[in-house]
């Protein structure tokens, strides 16, 4: 399987590509090392899902991005996602950024919101200390591959004490399965800052279909007292494989909030982790997923507590149709010394067909006595008592089930921070649930 | 047409066990019937069988509302035909707000193309909630989730008031209500009394019947109506219990489906 990998990700070609893009030496070197690693180390091994059986070879070739003249020129699937009147928007098409706009207010406050390639060239001193520090490039083949090949991407830097009122929005889309589509998103929120970031990763249903892989990494650094709200919806087509690893490192009294909608039509590996390093650091993670056809989903949420009085909450809800499957893992790890930590997790799967499969694996790993932790997990079908109750008020069976299914997903849907994205999520849910 | 509800020879079983052993009852618009009876005698089973709970299998008999056999219909059709059941144990539905639910129910009742406008709906809902002295916050809470026993009962009555049914079955609507709530809920029911609406009130206590005066009182034992009378029957039961009825009828074990 690695024939294509070794041609695409070998040291020379990765370095040559990096140089041709004018990347700084440190990055060229990082890519070279990673490319070599990618040829030797293994894919990640999530519980009960054999991702090595997925089509992971379609990594494609770098496609030189062409700047878009206007948002109106972009495909319908992208335009529909753009928040009305948005001032801070970044769009990646296939291998690179094609649209960027930031408000003057943001720039005046010293906030940086640009594609990661540009950030590496123009703000290397800010990027280098963080890039591949939350996630190491040598963790597995996926992280190495992203390190070697990542393109476009997003960089957000919010200086100390700066509060960014309006959400920053990124749209990452693929309309050429032959192109490498491997974003890397890096967010650094300095002490006591606040920011909301929302992105959508989509593929254009109007474009020619073909197998593609989306190896993506998100790293978030939350400095003391800072707050980062991170919302993300993935809705790529059936021929795509989405592998996205997200990780936040949270310092004293910092907080990260993850709101993730995994709504791809293809196989999906999604792993979202908060490392609660600081005292009083907190994390809230909400994930929803809808699976259809024979789609496989591996959905993992993790919280690792180092800080005293750190707090984590993780909720994953998945609705599986047809013969789709969801393996949901929740891992709460409390390290020795993290006294008064509290970690709670819930995983729930609703199966809408007898062939659908759901599996919830809550895991608590606790090395400290003075903590509280809890988990709840359930896998089941739509509750007939609830359907009966709604029907007894005149609501048809179909509508009753709809209400219950949407209600099941509501705790996450209602939290999506950008109105346009929330509306889009609703439409995506309707398409997947009722299509 | 004046409402007429006729239950004829209704038998029902659960898991193959016969619980209802032939119920006959006729309720006309404007009438209030009360059903009393010891625990486990089939009162809720009657309510569930009428509504069409999937666990209960009707094996014999009919239940006609204005000439239409309800038992031939799906649960939602029965509701739209005008049957309403305030349940003894209403379900909790997480993620569905009370107001979204109420609006769906109301629109289902009104039919496609005749949906109520949002403004009008909110005005109606808020008006009724006020009558029931419900905190407006309950409109935005998830349906029955975390509601106290009494709050659930009030919410059942709110639904009844909005849906304007022809036949109302109240299954222990008074259980879990405090003294003030009992009065408020009773006022709600009394306000709904009308010539074209009939009520079947299942209760254990005379107390509710002090507020909602019944025209007829029935006693249920062993899955049958074993005795019927006027309001004075309820008073006697309250004072003397059920032993005299059992004695009169030679009943030793009044429950059903236990053996
Ligand atoms: N789902 C069920 N599974 C098994 N048995 C049931 C079920 N529902 C009812 N029964 C049995 O049927 C009998 C009648 O129950 P029902 O709930 O109708 O009584 P009730 O008269 O309403 O009692 P209460 O006054 O306590 O509410 C009881 O013995 C009960 O255990
Ligand atoms: Mg009962």
Architecture overview:
The complex is a heterodimer of chains A (435) and B (259). Chain A is α/β, with parallel strands linked by helices. Chain A has two domains: 8-277, no CATH class; 382-435, no CATH class. Helices cover 23% and strands 37% of the residues of chain A. In chain A, helix 2 (11-20) runs antiparallel to helix 3 (25-38) and helix 9 crosses helix 10. The relative contact order of chain A is 0.10. By secondary structure, chain B is of the alpha/beta class. Chain B has a single domain (4-249), classed as P-loop containing nucleotide triphosphate hydrolases (Rossmann fold), CATH 3.40.50.300. In chain B, a hairpin with a 2-residue loop joins strand 4 (56-65) and strand 5 (68-69). In chain B, helix 5 runs parallel beside helix 6. The chains are: A alpha/beta (435), B alpha/beta (259). The interface between A and B is medium-sized, with 24 and 28 residues. The complex binds adenosine-5'-triphosphate and magnesium ion (MG).
Biggest sheet of chain A: strands side by side, in what order? Answer: 2-1-5-7-9-11-13-15-17-19
**On the 0-100 scale, what is the average pLDDT of chain A?**
94
Q: Which architecture name of chain B does CATH use?
A: 3-Layer(aba) Sandwich
Residue share in helices of chain B?
A: 25-40%
Kindly report the oligomeric state of this protein: heterodimer
Count every beta strand of chain B, where a strand is a DSSP E run of 2 or more residues: 12
Helical run tally of chain B: 9
What global shape of chain A is seen? globular
Q: What integer is the average pLDDT of chain B? A: 95
Distance between the termini of chain B: 44 Å
Classify the helix fraction of chain A into a percent range: 10-25%
Tell me the CATH topology of chain B. Rossmann fold
Number of domains of chain B: 1
Low-confidence stretches of chain A: none
User: Which class best fits the helix and strand makeup of chain B?
Assistant: alpha/beta
As a percent range, the share of strand residues of chain B is 25-35%
What would you call the structural class of chain A?
alpha/beta
């Amino acid at each position: 399987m690695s024939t294509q990998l070794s041609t695409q990700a070998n040291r020379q070609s990765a370095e040559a590509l990096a140089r041709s893009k004018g990347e700084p030496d440190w990055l060229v070197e990082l890519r070279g090392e990673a490319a070599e690693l990618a040829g030797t180390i293994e894919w990640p091994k999530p519980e009960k899902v054999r991702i090595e059986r997925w089509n992971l070879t379609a990594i494609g070739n770098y496609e030189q991005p062409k700047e878009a003249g206007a948002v109106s020129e972009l495909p319908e699937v992208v335009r529909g996602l753009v928040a009305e009147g948005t001032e801070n928007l970044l769009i990646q098409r296939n291998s690179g950024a094609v649209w960027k706009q930031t408000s003057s207010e943001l720039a005046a406050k010293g906030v940086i919101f640009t594609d990661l390639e540009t950030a590496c060239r123009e703000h290397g001193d800010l990027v280098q200390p963080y890039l591949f520090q939350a996630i190491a490039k040598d963790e597995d083949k996926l992280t190495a591959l992203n390190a070697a090949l990542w393109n476009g991407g997003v960089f957000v830097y919010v200086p100390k004490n700066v509060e960014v009122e309006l959400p920053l929005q990124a749209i990452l889309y693929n309309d050429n399965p032959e192109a490498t589509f491997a974003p890397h998103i890096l967010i650094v929120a300095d002490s006591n800052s606040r920011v909301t970031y929302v992105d959508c990763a989509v593929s254009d249903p109007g474009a020619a279909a073909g197998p593609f892989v989306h190896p993506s990494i998100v790293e978030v650094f939350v400095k003391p007292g800072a707050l980062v709200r991170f919302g993300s919806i993935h809705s790529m087509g059936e021929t795509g494989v989405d592998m996205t690893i997200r990780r936040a490192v949270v310092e004293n009294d910092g907080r990260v909030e993850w709101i993730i909608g995994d709504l791809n039509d293809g196989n999906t590996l999604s792993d979202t982790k908060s490392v609660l390093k600081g005292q009083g650091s907190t994390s809230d993670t909400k994930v929803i997923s809808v699976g259809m056809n024979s789609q496989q989903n591996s959905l993992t949420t993790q919280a690792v507590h180092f800080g005293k009085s750190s707090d984590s909450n993780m909720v994953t809800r998945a609705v599986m149709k047809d013969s789709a499957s969801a393996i949901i893992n929740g891992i709460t790890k409390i390290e020795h010394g993290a006294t008064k930590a509290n970690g709670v997790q819930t995983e729930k799967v609703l199966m809408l067909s007898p062939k659908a499969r759901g599996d919830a694996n809550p895991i608590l790993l606790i090395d400290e006595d003075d903590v509280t932790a809890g988990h709840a997990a359930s896998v089941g079908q739509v509750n007939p008592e609830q359907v009966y109750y709604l029907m007894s008020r005149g609501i048809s069976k179909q509508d009753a089930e709809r209400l219950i299914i949407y209600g099941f997903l509501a705790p996450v849907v209602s939290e999506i921070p950008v109105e346009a994205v929330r509306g889009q999520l609703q439409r995506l849910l309707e398409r997947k649930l009722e299509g | 047409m004046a409402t007429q509800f006729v239950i004829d020879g209704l038998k029902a079983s659960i898991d193959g066990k016969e619980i209802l052993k032939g119920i006959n009852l006729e309720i006309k618009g404007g009438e209030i019937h009360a059903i009393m009876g010891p625990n486990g005698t089939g009162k809720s089973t009657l309510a569930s069988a009428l509504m069409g709970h999937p666990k209960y299998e009707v094996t014999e008999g009919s239940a006609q509302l204005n000439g239409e056999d309800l038992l031939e219909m799906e649960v939602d059709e029965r509701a739209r035909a005008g049957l309403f059941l305030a349940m003894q144990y209403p379900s909790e539905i997480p993620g569905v707000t009370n107001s979204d639910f109420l609006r769906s129910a109301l629109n289902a009742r009104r039919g496609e193309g005749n949906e109520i406008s949002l403004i009008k709906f909110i005005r109606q809902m808020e008006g009724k909630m006020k009558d029931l002295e419900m905190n407006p916050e309950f409109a935005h809470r998830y349906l029955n989730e975390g509601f106290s026993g009494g709050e659930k009962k009030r919410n059942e009555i709110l639904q009844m008031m909005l849906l304007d049914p022809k036949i109302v079955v109240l299954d222990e609507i008074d259980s879990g209500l405090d003294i003030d709530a009992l009065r408020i809920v009773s006022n709600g029911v009394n306000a709904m009394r009308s010539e074209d609406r009939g009520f079947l009130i299942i209760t254990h206590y005379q107390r509710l019947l002090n507020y909602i005066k019944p025209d007829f009182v029935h006693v249920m034992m062993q899955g049958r109506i074993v005795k019927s009378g006027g309001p004075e029957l309820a008073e006697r039961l309250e004072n003397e219990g059920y032993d005299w009825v059992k004695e009169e009828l030679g009943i030793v074990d009044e429950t059903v489906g236990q053996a």
